[in-house]
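Memo to structure team: turn this sequence into structure tokens by end of day. - J.P.
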Amino acid sequence: MTYLKSEKQGLAERLRGVLGPIPDKLLPGHELEREFRGDHDLNPASAPLQGEIYTAAAVLVPIVVREGGLSVIFTRRATHLAKHAGQISFPGGRADAGDGSAVATALRESLEEIALDPGLVEVVGSLSTYVTVTRYSVTPVVGLVKPSFTLVPEVGEVSEIFEVPLDFLLDERNRKKHSGFHNGIERHWYAIPFGNYYIWGATAGMIKDLSERIIIK
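Reply from structure team:
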């Protein structure tokens, strides 16, 4: 098994070849209209139903391009948040009515959460929409990031910013299936432990999607 190499030359073109197009716009409340994956991949009972309304959101999957290789930026959510406190995620969030596109949402949220300059990001495509049990439809926007950034966490939302080598994330041997009970119901999810970090749920599911697209069997 091999994977995309770390050279800069041709990387954007090769990623564009395996990633999907980005939706023209995001609507605050909408039905699912394109290919999607989600929590139901491992929990069929939670599969989306026809006609259900979802809240649109977008995240940036920021792949940092350095001479020594590629890495991906993650955030740890602040521990005082009411929802998903302390979890690992990509920068992103709910679409605003004025955003106009998934790219606009992902870049705006990345600027607000970690002070990532949009001018340093080359957007190359998107992964499948990811649907959560909380009724969000999330567009994962993939971007190549120049390493000349200074990131600053927005203390109201983010407690930590860190990077993980892309090679590690793509290696299926590092991806686990875990399970637990919530409100008496057993649920399953993907997890990618990395040192003291536990990347799981929707974020790990999006990484699995990326891995399946660019791994060469």
